[in-house]
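Example 3.2
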Amino acid sequence: MPNVKEKMTEVIQSHSNDASYEEIIRKLAFDLMIERGLQDSRSGRVISDEDMRQQILSWRESQSPTPC
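Structure, written as tokens:
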């Protein structure tokens, strides 16, 4: 697996010369999120689909404005 500097160089080189900072940063962030998710999965730090559904529903409920 490439080290951080190698990975960043790889991502930068894969973009066109007119790529924006935002495009490159977005790709680096996306790749980091994917790698963290894979590490979590390999380590057994996962939850069931149903548990995730319940968490999302509770987040939505907590974000709903309360009626007057």
